Amino acid sequence: MANQRTIAKTVKVSGIGLHTGVDVNLTLKSAPPNTGYIFVRTDLDNFEIPASVEYISHCAYATTLLRRGVVLSTCEHLLSALRGVGIDNCFIELDNIEIPIMDGSSENFVALLERAGIKEQDSPRHSLKILEKVEFEQGDRKMSVEPSEKFEIECIIDFPHPFIEKQSFHFVFENGSFGREIASARTFGFTEEIEMLRKANLALGGSLENAIVLTPEGMLNEGPLRFKDEFVRHKILDIIGDLALLGMPLLGKVKAEKSGHAVHASLMSKLLKTDSAWEVI
Ligand SMILES: [Zn+2]
Description:
By secondary structure, the protein is of the alpha+beta class. The protein is built from 6 helices and 19 strands. It is about 20% helix and about 35% strand. Strands 11, 12, 13, 14, 15, 18 and 19 form a 7-stranded mixed β-sheet that branches. Strands 2-3-9-4-5 form a 5-stranded mixed β-sheet, covered by helices on one side. A 3-stranded antiparallel β-sheet has the order 6-7-8, with no helix packed on it. α1 packs across α2 (about 105-115), α1 (about 75-85) crosses α5 and α5 (about 230-245) packs parallel to α6 (about 260-275). Bound molecules: zinc ion. The site of zinc ion has 5 residues, from α1 and α5.
């Protein structure tokens, strides 16, 4: 049976928030067994916000946590990296409201965690094992989770854009697969949305350095896509990051079609309310 893991040493990185545009310094520190991931706002007397489904506040364009009036925004790409490389316990200190966006993927966070190193701990790892299928549907957006011996995700996206159209990908979580197949897939947005987002005070830190920006016929970025199906791979990155809010690794098969952060949140809360559908092993 596998043991829990934390990071071996403290590491730091700085960047800007995708939506707020603010500068933020991030420090990752090792944490004792059974801590999970805890965000610590060092600018607010070290106020702690655990990475947990119960603190999900809203999910428009990013997953935002809220505890007693204190906000923590855009946590999904960092949580995806932590879960993706198999870290169970970590303190995530930051001195502003939003996790830095880096290059729009989880690649920099994975590199940071590799620099930190992994430390195996004395307690066995817990997993959330799925016992029966739970589904959530909202119009043509669907997500479900069902029993499997592995953590796997089957994802389909469909955008009327020549670079995307219908893309599907089946991800199986096993040694190194996150780093190889998912971590470097960048977030993406559409030029026609950007004006609307900025009016809503969102995407203020967004640029071609941290997102794929799609025009109606092509994209503004000069470099090539990192994968032909980078878009669906990023969606899987987001799903892994949002599911990390369950507080432990998932043992089950996730199917997602045209899902987004709000659908991920709804499925998780339905799952947790359905006692017969899971057990902690
Ligand atoms: Zn994302």
